[in-house]
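PROTOCOL LOG
Step 1. Enter all chains and additional molecules of the complex.
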Amino acid sequence: MKGVSKIYRTDLIETHALRDFSVEINDGDFVAVTGPSGSGKTTLLNIAGLLESFNGGVYELDGVDMFGLNDDDSSEIRNEQIGFIFQSFNLMPDLNLFENVEVPLHYRGFKAAERKRRIEESLERVGLSGRMRHLPSQLSGGQQQRVAIARALAGTPKLLLADEPTGNLDSLMARQVLDLLDDINRAGTTIVMVTHDEELARRAKRNVHVLDGKVDDGTAYQAQQREHPVEVIA
Amino acid sequence: MFSDSKISYDFQLALNSIKKTPVLSALMVAAVGIGIGACMTIITIYYLMSTDPNPDNSEQLYTYGLDNHLTVTEGQEDGRPRLMSTYRDALYILQSDIPTEQSVHYQTWAVYRNVEDGVNPFWNLFRLATPGFFSLFDVPFLYGEAWSQEQEDSKAMVIVLTREINDSLFGGENSVGKKIEVGDNFYEIIGVMDSFEPQPKYFEFDNGFFSDIRGALVPFSLTPVLELMKNSGGSSCVAIPEGDDFQSYLDAECHWLHHWVRLPTEEKREAFSEMLDNYSLEQRRFGRFQGPFNNRLFSLMEWLEYLEIVDGTMIMLIGVAMMFLIVCLLNTNALLFAKFTGRSAEVSLKRALGCSKKRLFRQHLLEISLVGLVGGALGLLLALVGLAGIKAMMTDFDSLAHLNTDLVIIAIAASIISTLIAGLFPAWRTCQIAPAKYLKSQ
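Step 2. Run joint prediction.
Step 3. Record the structure below.
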């Protein structure tokens, strides 16, 4: 992302959620986006996940410009290249685990056998292969979040976006989910995680601190840089 | 492209969605069903009233109206000619060789008995007709055939049964060659008609245009022999018969016969019209036809229009039914809004998971179509109930109270299309939900 801006307009007010926001995230990164409420973290994640458009600047995903994509194209990219994990899990309550994980695979147009293989594999990976026919309401919060992770992983995305993935979980479950995210990252998937939790942020390879819609230079690229040095163009 | 698996998945989603909100779905189906049911009840009647009952022949079939008033002042106030023929005029016109076929017919009542097995005698309609009746009106035969012109001319005691009579007297078996007693006379059965239900029953208006064709038919030439007066349907006289005997009845200036002719070419039509006019002018010289010169030749469809089978009340009823359907669809529209608004979070999630607006819109339209389909089926059931109600309340509507394939297709298509129209905006609105909007708040 380079110089990305996002403005929310109403009749009376113009709110700058992101101002000239720049960050480069490399393949295999595990980036924690931190910052106070209202600083623009979720807006950043939404733009990165093509859930929202942006007003200016450049956002390239895997070398492709994401500005002004039509709905069909952005939906396809979301489906094929991006996985989402939300704070509130966002599972469909009337579908069982198998069917929940199956939803994005249907949009991808995979045949039944391929869908089944991917679902079983991803549920296996999050340790829930024995509960495929359970409904989300029969699971604990941590298990539900693992289903959401399985759903995000089933499409083998390049980029996994997580918005407060442990926000609704107790510390034990949170640790399990984070361990899982660590594993996924080690297997090569790039992860961008928004979090309030400093301890969680420390487990990422690097942190990006957002303040008032911009990268806060004072804290960015600091101690947590462990393996992948990154540049920020700000 | 939209592959089969996508369609079946979207169909499954639509079914799940309908099941998930059973009360709302039932309300929508009920709203659509009631609206379609009311509309289809009225439209069925209109359709059957206004459809060409004999499309293969209707352009060649004609009937006529003559005005035989005896004085100038007696002419019909509305200038309409008499719509049936007198016995005397019918006999004259029957001799004309301009029409290629002719049917003169009327109805009476008679007691039927099966000579052989003594089934209880019963009353039923009894028609006297020239053999042209069967060919002009395309009467289908189950067994045997109609009588010939020779049999007509020789006043043969032969009879053609309707299927209904053959069923009740002979259990549906081939009764050709058997004897039957009708009104104290014995006839040889030479034919059994198959089901024959033209709608409307255009060739006569006795007992209404939508009553079943019942009873049996015998040669018209037997009228003076058996002295069978018309006692089913209407007659109108412009003068009191001179005597009490049957010949006076036949000679009277009374209209009671239906007379149809086949005029296959324009030349024939002109010649027949001219013949009617000449006949009318000639009769004036004998003191008849003194009223307005009111001869008219009607084609089948002109005749139905002239008789105003489809009157203004029917058009008004259609309007009312349509407005009722619109009210029902507005209700459906509101219900769909309520239903779709309730799934904003789900829509948001699906969008985030990669479902495009187009696909989501198609999913919603499929769901709406399913509601329309089930609503249409319910509407058909309600239309059947409505038609049965009309049949029970009104006489002579036997043949109107049923739906044919065309009407079933119209009902289902109308239901799906109108429900889609009602649901188009709610579906479109729902698909405009930004994918990020409800993900955090769920």
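Step 4. Note key features.
The longest strand of chain B covers residues 101-114.
Chain B touches chain A through 26 residues (CB under 8 Å).
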